[in-house]
Amino acid sequence: MTVSTATIPGQILTSAYVNNNINSGLTYISTVTLSAAAGTALQWSGTVFSSTYTNYRLVCNLTRTGGGDAVNMQLGIGPTATAADYYGGGYLISTSGAAAMSAFNQSNADRWTRAFGRFETVSGCVIDITNPNVAASTGIVSTSTGGGADTDGNVCQFMGYQGGVVQFTSFALISTATSCAGTIQVYGYRIA
Known about the structure:
Layout: H1 15-21, E1 26-36, E2 41-43, E3 55-64, E4 71-77, E5 80-81, E6 86-93, E7 101-109, E8 121-130, E9 138-147, E10 155-162, E11 170-175, E12 180-189
Antiparallel strand pairs: 1-12, 2-11, 3-8, 3-12, 4-5, 4-11, 6-7, 6-10, 8-9, 9-10
C-alpha cells in the first residue's frame, strides 16, 4: 500500500485515491482477545505478519493473576513457535522498591523475556517489531507500564532481536507462573 500523489485543483478523487490516504501512517490490522492458564502459550491464530508490511506495532492490555512473573514472547510460523536465538535486554524501573532501576539481559534464549513487562496488570504496552516477515534478523523494542501486586517494576523498557533469518507469520505470549488474559491490537507501518 502506497500513499497517493498530491492532488491538483479541480481533480475528482476516486475511492482508491481516498482509501490510500485515509490511513497514511499506521494501518489497523486486527484485535485478538487472549486467555490462557499458567504455562500455556497464547498463540495468535492465523497470520499476523505478512509481506504487506515490513514493520508492525502491537498495542497490548494484559492482566495476570498474581505476581512475580514476566510475560514472554516467541515468534513462529503458523502454530509452530521458534524456541532459540533470542537476544535482548532492558531495564525495570520501580517506584515502590528501594532499588529504583535494575537491568537484565539474555543471550541465545528460547524466548524474549519481559517483552510485555513484568506486572500484574500491563496497563500500557507498545511493541514495535521490525522485519518479522522478511528474510533478515527480526528486531523488537517495547515499552510497558503496569501495576498491581508486583513490586518488581512499574515501567519496563526492552530491546532485542531474533538472530535467525526466518520469515515469521505469528507470535505467542508465555506467562510461565500465572494465568494471563487481555487484548492486543496489531497495526502495520504503512510503506510510503
